[in-house]
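User: DUF1552 domain-containing protein. Structure?
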Amino acid sequence: MVPALSSASAQVAQPAKRLGVVYVPNGMAMKSWTPATEGAGFEITRIMEPMAAYHDRMLVITGLDGPRSNAGVHASASTRFLTGAIPARTESDLQASVSLDQMVARQLGRETQLSSLELALDQNDVFGSCDIGFSCQYTSTIAWRDAYTPLPMET
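Assistant: Predicted structure:
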């Protein structure tokens, strides 16, 4: 609704800012995704060409890494991806950390109807042990509301 005596063009809302995160558990050729140049004028790589229309609104973050763990390789990798935390070896009392996407959602989500949307390609089991004593919940999501609350993915 536009207030009386005001210009409609003055009321145009700016598009909401979004964060998109892609997790590929079996790895990817980072050279294909990482631009050769830095800064706002970075060169789009061949694999990123379908997103070229959004180039001026994209930020590519590279070189992130976290603590390593030899126990529960799958559970550890998916949990560490956005939390940086090594998961507790347990099938019931989960413990990780709030994930980066949820930190961003708390800020950017104020401008949107849904602050966060978690999507997955595969249906995931969320009960039992999926990785040498680690709960399946560690491998079925990369998003954590807080240290004890994994967020389920929509398929």
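Strands lie at 129-131, 134-135, 144-146, 149-150. The chain has a mean pLDDT of 83.
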